[in-house]
Design brief:
It is a single chain. An eight-stranded antiparallel beta barrel has the order 1-2-3-4-5-6-7-8. It has helices at 2-30, 34-40, and strands at residues 45-54, 62-72, 82-94, 97-112, 119-130, 144-155, 160-170, 181-191. The protein has 192 residues and is of the alpha+beta class. The longest helix has 29 residues, at 2-30. It folds into two domains: 1-31; 39-191, Porin, CATH 2.40.160.
Length: 192
């Protein structure tokens, strides 16, 4: 009988401990900041579509259509600055001709108004490889170019967004011709 009492006491104590631990874990999860909750979710990947038009008049009609993927890294300790790495493939349309541009580089997001704000400052810098750099009346000098961009991004839902960035692309005077292409670019995307 005494053994049965000890076993029942041990089981009920274990159950009480388990319930207390479960309650404590739920409380800890509830107390997590927005950034910590997002970090625990699977929203570290982003895909998006960008469309850009030149900010200045060009000798030929130009636009860009871009598909990009970003991987979110851990925010820098003690800051709201979130680094990302970006891969992109875009179509550069110059007049009736088109070429493709492959890009890779870092990006950042900084929430405006705290971690729960819907508006973010965003920026990126990439190295690009152009499959075509000569479009007749419009020449970009060579295949390797660099871009930098900055703008604003806003959340539409918990995992969708829209953004605007101003982007500058040039070859940094590596080639004989270095016509910069500056674009106003809008994008829509999804986090997953």
């Amino acid at each position: 009988m005494r053994t049965l009492f000890i076993i029942l006491f041990a089981l009920t104590s274990s159950s009480a401990f388990s319930n207390e631990y479960s309650s404590e874990t739920q409380t800890q999860n509830f107390d997590l900041s927005f950034d910590d909750r997002i970090s625990n979710m699977l929203l570290k990947n982003t895909i998006g579509l960008r469309y850009g038009t030149p900010s200045k008049k060009q000798i030929l009609p130009i636009n860009t259509k871009e598909f990009y993927y970003q991987r979110r890294m851990e925010p820098f300790s003690g800051t709201l600055l979130t680094p990302l790495m970006e891969l992109s493939v875009s179509q550069l349309n110059v007049g009736e001709e088109k070429g493709y541009v492959y890009g890779f580089g870092p990006a950042i997001h900084i929430p405006i108004g705290g971690s729960s704000g819907k508006l973010n400052f965003t920026a990126h810098g990439k190295v690009h490889y152009l499959t075509r750099s000569d479009y007749g009346r419009k020449r970009y000098g060579g295949p390797v170019h660099w871009t930098y961009a900055f703008g604003l991004k806003t959340k539409l839902t918990v995992n969708t967004f829209a953004s605007y960035v101003w982007q500058h692309m040039s070859n940094g005077d590596v080639y004989e011709y270095n016509p910069a292409l500056e674009t106003h670019t809008i994008s829509l995307g999804i986090h997953f």
